C-alpha cells in the first residue's frame, strides 16, 4: 500500500462489523481502530496491523460499585425555579421540572450546611432557622415575605450518567440499564478505580491506547421531566461538587463555600457570565486536584506500556487544556470533536501532548444517518471549516466515531470520507512539519477569560448554532483559518501592559457578558491602557457591543476610540448627522450585501475622524475611525462566511497599518483562501464553496497564476521557481 495513502486515521468498529472494518481499514488506509460508547471491540480485530484504542470510563459502567457506595455517587448543584410567596409561608418542591431518573436529592449530607435559600427580591440569604426541609414531601418550607421571590440551591446525586442518558435518548436504546456515575475524587472510589485500571490493563494486553472518556467531572448536562435538555453548559462546574470536595476547597481557599459560587442566580456560572473571584478560585482548585489524580491514572497506563489519551468532552471539567496544570497530567494525546475551525483549533493548539486527534463530524448516529438527514453535506461543511484551521495549526490525526454500519450503508458517504482523508494526508505531506506564513504581528482577543478559554470565546457548546451568538462566534471562526497569530488576553493583563507583538485588539460580544467585559470597562487603568495603545499606532476592532457599560454619559466606554456609540434613549435629543462613504480598503474585494448577522441596532457615528462604510437606514453597521496614530473598526456583527473572512482580514491589516503586507500572498476571489509554506516552497489554494470558482494568485504583488477550482477543491502550487 502507498505510504502516502495510509496512516493518520482512526475508524470506529463493532462486533458485527469485522469484515467490513477490515475492508474499510484497507480502503481508507486507517492505522487505528476504536470502540465507541454503545459498541464493542471485536476480538478478531485485535490482531490487525493497527493501533487499538479502547474507550475507558473512569466514572461509570460499574453500577455494582456505585450501588454499594451510594454516598460516593457524583453530585450536582441544582436550583429551583423562582417562586413568589403570596403569604408568610412558602413551600418549594425541589424536583419540580427535573428528571427524577437522572437526579436524587442528597439527604445524606446536612441540607442546612450545604444548601442555600435565597430571597431573590433582596438578594439576601435566608437564615437556616427560617426554613426546613421535609424529606417525605421533598419540599423546603420557608418563612417568607409576601410577594418576594425565593429559590433553593440544593445537592443531588447523579443517578444516571448524563452522557449515557444523552446517548440512550438519542439512539433510542431500549434495554440498556441506566449507568450510575460515581465520584473518583471520593476516598473509597479513588482507591477502587486505581486498582480497577491496573486490573483492566493486565486483562487487555492487546490494547495500545487507553482513551479516557474523560476523567472525573461531567460538564453541566441537566434534563427536564420530559427527557429534554433543560440546561447545558459545556464549561459548567455545577456537577463537580460534593461535601467531600467542598470541604477540601474551603481549607485550600481559606473561606466558606457558597452554592451561589456555582449556581450563580440560576445561570450555573455560564461561561458568558463575568467570573467571580470565588468561581475562578474554585476552577483553579479543581484543576489542581483533577490534574494530580489524572496523572496517577496516566502513570498506571504508562506502567503497562500503553498510551494515555484524553477525550476533550464529557467528564472533562478540571482538565482545562489551556490551564496552568494540564501539562502535569502527562498525557500522550488529546482527541476531541471537530465541529468547525474553532473547535479544531481548540484541540490542535493544545501543548504538552505528543499528538492531537480530531473526531470529524458527523458522528455515525441515527439522528443524522436517517431519512431526511444529509450526512454527506454535513461532512463536506465540516471539512471545509476544519481544513482552513488545519492549514494554520494542524491536527496530527483525524478519525470518526459512532456506528460504522450506518456510515457504510449510506450511499456515497465512504467516498466523501476518502476525499477528506486524502486531503488531510496531502496537507501533512506538503507542510513537512513546517508552519504556514503568518502576518508579522499578533492579534489579541480581549475578554474576561483570556487563554484559559482559548478558541472557546462566545461558545455555548461545541459548534452548536445559536441565533444570539453566531454573529460573534463568526469572528473567532474566521480567525481560526487566517494567517494571523492570535492571543487570548484578559483585562487584568491589559492593566499590566500590552504585549508589543500585539498590533490589533478585538473585543466582541454582547454587553455585560464575559466576552465584552461588562464592569471592567469602568476601570480607568483598562480604558487608559487601550486608549494609549491605539493613540500610539495600535488597532482596535469592536464587534457587537465592545466596551459596553452605561457609565459617565456613554454606552461604549471606548466610543472615542471606536467613533461610534449606541443610542439607548438618553441622547435622543442630540442630533446625529451620519452619511455613508463606502469607498475603503476594507471593502475593495466585496460585492453585494454584507451579512452582519443579528447585529446591533441604533449605532451612530460621532467625532471628527470617522467614516461610515455601511448603514442600515439612519444608523451605522460598519465604521472606521482614526484615533491619534491608530485606527479602529466597528462591526455590528460578523457571522462566519468566506466573504466575512475577507472583510475581517482586511480590517485587521488596515487596523494594523499593514495593508501592503496583506498583498504579499493574495488570492482575488473571496470564496478562496491560501496558505503559504515558505520552507517547503508550497502554496495551497482552497475553494471554500460548493461551486466552481476562478481566482488569481498573487505573490509579492505579481500575478503568479490564474486558477480554476472545482467545488471544494484544494490545489497545491510550487512557487519557488516562479518568484
List keywords for this structure.
Immunoglobulin-like; TIM Barrel; 8-stranded parallel β-barrel; alpha/beta; 26% helix; 7-stranded mixed β-sheet; 723 residues; single chain; Rossmann fold; globular
Describe the structure in your own words.
- The model has no long low-confidence stretch (mean pLDDT 94).
- With 723 residues, the chain is an alpha/beta fold.
- The two termini are 36 Å apart.
- Helix 9 (341-348) links the parallel strand 17 (333-338) and strand 18.
- Helix 9 packs across helix 13 (470-480) and helix 13 (470-480) crosses helix 17 (642-655).
- The strands form 9 sheets. It has an 8-stranded parallel β-barrel, surrounded by 4 helices. Strands 21-20-22-23-30-29-28 form a 7-stranded mixed β-sheet. Strands 4, 5, 7, 8, 9 and 12 form a 6-stranded antiparallel β-sheet that branches.
- The longest helix is centred in the middle third of the chain and has 27 residues, at 277-303.
- The protein folds into 4 domains: 1-56 and 332-433, Glycosidases (TIM Barrel, Alpha-Beta Barrel); 69-183 and 190-205 and 227-327, Immunoglobulin-like, CATH 2.60.40; 442-662, 3-Layer(aba) Sandwich (Rossmann fold), CATH 3.40.50.880; 665-722, Immunoglobulin-like.
Amino acid at each position: 500500500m502507498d505510504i502516502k495513502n495510509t496512516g493518520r486515521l482512526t475508524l470506529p468498529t463493532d462486533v458485527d462489523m469485522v469484515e467490513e472494518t477490515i475492508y474499510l481499514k484497507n480502503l481508507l488506509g486507517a492505522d487505528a481502530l476504536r470502540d465507541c460508547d454503545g459498541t464493542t471491540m471485536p476480538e478478531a480485530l485485535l490482531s490487525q496491523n493497527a493501533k487499538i484504542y479502547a474507550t475507558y470510563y473512569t466514572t461509570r459502567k460499574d453500577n455494582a460499585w456505585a450501588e454499594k457506595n451510594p454516598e460516593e455517587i457524583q453530585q450536582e448543584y441544582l436550583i429551583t425555579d423562582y417562586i413568589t410567596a403570596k403569604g408568610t409561608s412558602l413551600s418549594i418542591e425541589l424536583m419540580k421540572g427535573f428528571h427524577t431518573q437522572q437526579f436524587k436529592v442528597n439527604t445524606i449530607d446536612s441540607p442546612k450546611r450545604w444548601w442555600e435559600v435565597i430571597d431573590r427580591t433582596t438578594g439576601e440569604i435566608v437564615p437556616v432557622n427560617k426554613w426546613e426541609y421535609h424529606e417525605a414531601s421533598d419540599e423546603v418550607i420557608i418563612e417568607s415575605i409576601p410577594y418576594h421571590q425565593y429559590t433553593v440551591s440544593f445537592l443531588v446525586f447523579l443517578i444516571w450518567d448524563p452522557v449515557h442518558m444523552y446517548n440512550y435518548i438519542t439512539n433510542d436504546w431500549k434495554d440498556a440499564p441506566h449507568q450510575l456515575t460515581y465520584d473518583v475524587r471520593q476516598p473509597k472510589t479513588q482507591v477502587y478505580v486505581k486498582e480497577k485500571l491496573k486490573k483492566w490493563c493486565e486483562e487487555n494486553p492487546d490494547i495500545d491506547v487507553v482513551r479516557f472518556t474523560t476523567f472525573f467531572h461531567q460538564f453541566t448536562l441537566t434534563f427536564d421531566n420530559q427527557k429534554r435538555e433543560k440546561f447545558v453548559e459545556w464549561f459548567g462546574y455545577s456537577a463537580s461538587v460534593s461535601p467531600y470536595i467542598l470541604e477540601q476547597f474551603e481549607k485550600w481557599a481559606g473561606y466558606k463555600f457558597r452554592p451561589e459560587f456555582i449556581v450563580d442566580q440560576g445561570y450555573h456560572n455560564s461561561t458568558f457570565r463575568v467570573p467571580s473571584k470565588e468561581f475562578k478560585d474554585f476552577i483553579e482548585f479543581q484543576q489542581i486536584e483533577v490534574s494530580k489524580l489524572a496523572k496517577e491514572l496516566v502513570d498506571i497506563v504508562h506502567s503497562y506500556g500503553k498510551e494515555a489519551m484524553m477525550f476533550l468532552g464529557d467528564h472533562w471539567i478540571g482538565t482545562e487544556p489551556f490551564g496552568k496544570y494540564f501539562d502535569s497530567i502527562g498525557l500522550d494525546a488529546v482527541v476531541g470533536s471537530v465541529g468547525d475551525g474553532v473547535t479544531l483549533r481548540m484541540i490542535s493548539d493544545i501543548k504538552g501532548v505528543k499528538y492531537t486527534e480530531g473526531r470529524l463530524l458527523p458522528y455515525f448516529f441515527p439522528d443524522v444517518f436517517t431519512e431526511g438527514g444529509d450526512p454527506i453535506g454535513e461532512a463536506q461543511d465540516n471539512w471545509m471549516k476544519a481544513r482552513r484551521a488545519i492549514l494554520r495549526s494542524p491536527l496530527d490525526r483525524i478519525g470518526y466515531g459512532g456506528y460504522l454500519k450506518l456510515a457504510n450503508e449510506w450511499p456515497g458517504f465512504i467516498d466523501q470520507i476518502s476525499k477528506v482523508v486524502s486531503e488531510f494526508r496531502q496537507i501533512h505531506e506538503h507542510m513537512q512539519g513546517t508552519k504556514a506564513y503568518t502576518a508579522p504581528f499578533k492579534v489579541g482577543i480581549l475578554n474576561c477569560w483570556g487563554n484559559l478559554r482559548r478558541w472557546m470565546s462566545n461558545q455555548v457548546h461545541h459548534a452548536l448554532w445559536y441565533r444570539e451568538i453566531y454573529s460573534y462566534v463568526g469572528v473567532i471562526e474566521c480567525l481560526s483559518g487566517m494567517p494571523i497569530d492570535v492571543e487570548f488576553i484578559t483585562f487584568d493583563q491589559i492593566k499590566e501592559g500590552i504585549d508589543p507583538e500585539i498590533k490589533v485588539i478585538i473585543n466582541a460580544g454582547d454587553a455585560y457578558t464575559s466576552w465584552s467585559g461588562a464592569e471592567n470597562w469602568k476601570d480607568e487603568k483598562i480604558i487608559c491602557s487601550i486608549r494609549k495603545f491605539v493613540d500610539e499606532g495600535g488597532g482596535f476592532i469592536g464587534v457587537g457591543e465592545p466596551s459596553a457599560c452605561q457609565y459617565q454619559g456613554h454606552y461604549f466606554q471606548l466610543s472615542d476610540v471606536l467613533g461610534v456609540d449606541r443610542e439607548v434613549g438618553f441622547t435622543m435629543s442630540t442630533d446625529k448627522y451620519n452619511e455613508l462613504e463606502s469607498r475603503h480598503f476594507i471593502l475593495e474585494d466585496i460585492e453585494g450585501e454584507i451579512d452582519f448577522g443579528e447585529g446591533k441596532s441604533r449605532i451612530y457615528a460621532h467625532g471628527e475622524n470617522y467614516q461610515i462604510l455601511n448603514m442600515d437606514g439612519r444608523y451605522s453597521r460598519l465604521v472606521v475611525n482614526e484615533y491619534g496614530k491608530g485606527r479602529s473598526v466597528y462591526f455590528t456583527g460578523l457571522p462566519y462566511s468566506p466573504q466575512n473572512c475577507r472583510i475581517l482580514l482586511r480590517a485587521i491589516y488596515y487596523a494594523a497599518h499593514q495593508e501592503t503586507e496583506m498583498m504579499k500572498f493574495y488570492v482575488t476571489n473571496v470564496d478562496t483562501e491560501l496558505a503559504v509554506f515558505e520552507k517547503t516552497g508550497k502554496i495551497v489554494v482552497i475553494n471554500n464553496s460548493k461551486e466552481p470558482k476562478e481566482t488569481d494568485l498573487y505573490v509579492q504583488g505579481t500575478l503568479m497564476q490564474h486558477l480554476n477550482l472545482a467545488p471544494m477543491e484544494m490545489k497545491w502550487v510550487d512557487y519557488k521557481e516562479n518568484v
